Amino acid sequence: MHLPSLFRRTPFRLTLLFLALFVATASAVMAYVYMASASEARARAEASVRAEVETLVAIYRTRGGNALNQALVDRTLRGDKYLYRLRDADGKVVTANISDIPDGVDSGEWEAFRLTDTDAEGRVQKRQSIGIDTALSGGEHLFVGEDVGDIEAYLSRLTQALWLAMFFVLVLGIGGGLLVSRRVEVAMGRLNRVVGAVQEGNLKVRVPVKHSGDELDELSIGLNTMLDRLEGSMASIRHAGDAIAHDLRSPLTRMRAKLEVALIDAEAGKVSGVDALELALGEADSLLKTFNTVLAIARLQAGGAPDPKVFDAAILGRDMAELYEYAGEEKDIEFASKIEEGLFVEGNHPFLAQALANLIDNAIKYTPAGGAVMFRARRKANGEIEYSVTDNGPGIPEEDRERVLQRFVRLDSSRTEPGSGLGLSLVTAVAEAHCGRIELAEGPGAYDGRGPGLRVALVLPPAEAPDQTA
């Protein structure tokens, strides 16, 4: 049997649980209040009766039985609150203002009994009373009691008030539970509709945010952020697929044309078959390099930097500077480096090396002969580790700096240079996988027909130096 949807809701179940706990706690408190109040009232009544007994016994001891009898008569006529009965040694009642005392009361023992009385409207009532019988030295028995019906009525009214308050709390609690459950059900309904739409392939749908700052808003914002990233990833995948098809069309066409020409030349005896195969292998290697770069970017974006380790970024910087110093000399470019010591980062050494290689290679490639390239590795004022490559080449216009970080984007000025437009996008993927970022800014500016240049910085979070004693 399935429960109604209301009883399956977690907020409503929690409300019922807390109400059950409240009822149990309130019942225990009510029982304690009742018992404590009743005990206190009985203790006060007993103390009052004992004081009256002591007074009357003192009269009997000092002045005799007649004086005690006279004192009881006077108190009865005066309308005292106490209940009296005096019996002689033979058990005969001498003086009494009540007749409801049970027989066989043990001397010195407290007795609870019901006192028959009439209210202002003439209705007969049975009121709770207590009393104690005291044996006197002459064989007489003195019973003194007190009507505690008013206290009992007060406790009864208090109990009724507490039960009534508990009833209202239960009603309000259940009503509040229904309201909260309904509110959560509506909010979860919005979330479920969005999830259902996403399952059907609609990545444009978003959860409405009420900006109330509660946990449902936080969940909605988190879900919307996730959908934004998912939509961006899907768009990136579609764009990458389209870009690959578009950018590889020309290399594939060019390779087919070269192979066709090489085949014709080979048939005519102009070139050897080995030369034709070397040409085909060169073109195939270029295509494989493009595919491998795209695969590396996808791996970084999907799973972050693999096998991260803490290492000295300064050593990597010196290695890269030494590697590209000769490349700068070949192109008649002044290549210089400035590496600070003790720059520890945590990451994948090969991927970071590839990212720095792309940055330095781009700077040398696009800086004309006679220009200069500066490679730096330093610790910033906020503790971050920064690799930067600055050149005085043509630079990148500010409006295009965000775009060149995307896959397969090549500016018109770089179409004549070899490449696939994946270099900076790989650097961006490496930076994001290492919780870092890439920054593009203008270089040293225009000077002597060169410039304005470009400054590209790869910024990474610092890491603690490894313990050399371990």
Please give the alpha-carbon distance between the first and last residues: 63 Å
Beta-strand segment tally: 12
Secondary-structure element series: HHEEEEEHHHEHEEHEEHEE
Number of domains: 3
Question: What is the H level of CATH, i.e. the homologous superfamily of the largest domain?
Answer: Histidine kinase-like ATPase, C-terminal domain
Mean pLDDT across all amino acids: 79
Strand content: 15-25%
**Quick one: CATH class of the largest domain?**
Alpha Beta
- Spans of at least 5 consecutive residues with low confidence: 412-416
User: What characterizes the major β-sheet?
Assistant: 5 strands, antiparallel
Helix tally equals 8
Radius of gyration, whole Å? 49 Å
CATH architecture assignment of the largest domain:
2-Layer Sandwich
The backbone outline, from C-alpha atoms, is rod-shaped
Transmembrane segments: 161-180
Subcellular location: Membrane
Domain Histidine kinase: 243-464
EC number: 2.7.13.3
Which terms would index this structure?
8 helices, 3 domains, 5-stranded antiparallel beta sheet, rod-shaped, 53% helix, alpha+beta, single chain, Helix Hairpins, 470 residues, Heat Shock Protein 90, Beta-Lactamase, 5-stranded mixed beta sheet
Would you kindly provide a brief summary of this structure?
The chain is an alpha+beta fold and 470 residues long. 53% of the residues lie in helices and 17% in strands.
